[in-house]
């Protein structure tokens, strides 16, 4: 048996997220059905983490074990030939038997895109839409609140396992103006469910002058799930890269 590490990209528009579900269409389900057909027996894959319904990925990573004898190039070609065009394999690598896509991940980068081009049909599924002009310097100043190691209880789902630590480290949070809108770049050692979307929408509210830096500090320091009532639209979020030891 050999273990393969696979990097894939997908358009999350028509899926109810990464994770296989009994009554919903998921990225994991499509990939596992494809691999099971290739092997002619059931194959289960393990990903670096989940993405929610409507969220996209440029660099999601998963692993699986195989007894088939193909090189990396032909693995990529075979998988892409059987996948829908909104899921594409970017890279295939042979790895050691102890490699684990989830437990060995050391860092992740997510990007969040927002635009005021609300009537542009090509933005609808791929950027968060905001009619109001945003004050980027104000957003950049408020972003500093989140950089470093913090308890992010105020910026995550109430449904995650209470035994799971809410302490995470954000090493970079950049706000950049681009031709079609604003890109927020989040780099850290890991992110809780909804964490990026909740922080992103909080910064958007700061950009609209609905919040000031002191409000955001108080929200973070309260460690209260009820403190933040904001959550950005899923279509603005992209899992860009998962790191396994190299720099993001």
Task: Describe how the helices and strands are arranged.
Blueprint: E1 2-10, H1 27-39, E2 46-47, E3 56-66, H2 72-82, E4 87-95, E5 107-115, E6 128-129, H3 136-143, E7 148-151, E8 167-178, E9 181-188, H4 195-207, H5 213-222, E10 237-243
Helix pairs in contact: 3-4
Walk me through this protein's architecture.
Helix content is 22%, strand content 29%. The protein is built from five helices and ten strands; from the N terminus they run βαββαβββαβββααβ. The chain has helices spanning 27-39, 72-82, 136-143, 195-207, 213-222, and strands spanning 2-10, 46-47, 56-66, 87-95, 107-115, 128-129, 148-151, 167-178, 181-188, 237-243. Strands 1, 2, 3, 4, 5, 6, 7, 8, 9 and 10 form a ten-stranded mixed beta sheet that branches. A hairpin with an 8-residue loop joins β2 (46-47) and β3 (56-66). α3 (136-143) packs across α4 (195-207). The protein is globular and about 60 Å long. The two termini are 31 Å apart. The model has no long low-confidence stretch (mean pLDDT 95).
Structural descriptors:
248 residues; alpha+beta
Q: Summarize this, please?
A:
The chain is α+β, with helices and mostly antiparallel strands and 248 residues long.
Please give the share of residues in helix. Answer: 10-25%
Q: What structural class is derived from the secondary structure elements?
A: alpha+beta
Show unreliable segments: none
Indicate the proportion of strand residues: 25-35%
Number of helices: 5
For the largest beta-sheet, the strand count, sense and barrel status come to: 10 strands, mixed
Q: How many strand elements?
A: 10
Rg of Cα set: 19 Å
What series of H and E elements makes up the topology? EHEEHEEEHEEEHHE
Sum up the overall morphology in one term: globular
């Amino acid at each position: 048996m050999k273990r393969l590490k696979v990097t894939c990209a997908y358009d999350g528009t028509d899926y109810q997220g990464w994770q296989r579900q009994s009554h919903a269409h998921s990225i994991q389900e499509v990939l596992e059905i494809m691999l099971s057909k290739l092997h002619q027996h059931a194959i289960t894959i393990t990903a670096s983490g989940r993405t929610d319904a409507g969220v996209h990925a440029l660099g999601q990573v998963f692993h699986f074990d195989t007894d088939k004898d193909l090189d990396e190039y032909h693995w990529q070609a075979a998988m892409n030939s059987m996948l829908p065009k909104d899921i594409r394999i970017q890279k295939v690598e042979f790895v050691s038997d102890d490699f684990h896509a989830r437990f060995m991940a050391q860092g992740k980068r997510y990007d969040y895109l927002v635009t005021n081009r609300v009537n542009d049909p090509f933005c609808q599924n791929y950027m968060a839409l905001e009619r109001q002009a945003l004050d980027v310097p104000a957003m950049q100043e408020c972003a500093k609140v989140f950089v470093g190691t913090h308890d992010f209880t105020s910026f995550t789902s109430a449904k995650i396992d209470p035994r799971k630590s809410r302490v995470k480290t954000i090493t970079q949070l950049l706000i950049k103006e681009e031709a079609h809108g604003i890109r927020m770049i989040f780099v850290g050692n890991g992110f809780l469910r909804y964490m990026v979307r909740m922080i992103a929408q909080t910064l958007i509210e700061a950009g609209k002058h609905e919040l000031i830096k002191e409000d955001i500090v108080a929200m973070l320091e309260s460690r209260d799930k009820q403190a933040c009532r904001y959550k950005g639209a899923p279509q603005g979020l992209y899992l860009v890269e998962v790191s396994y030891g190299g720099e993001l």
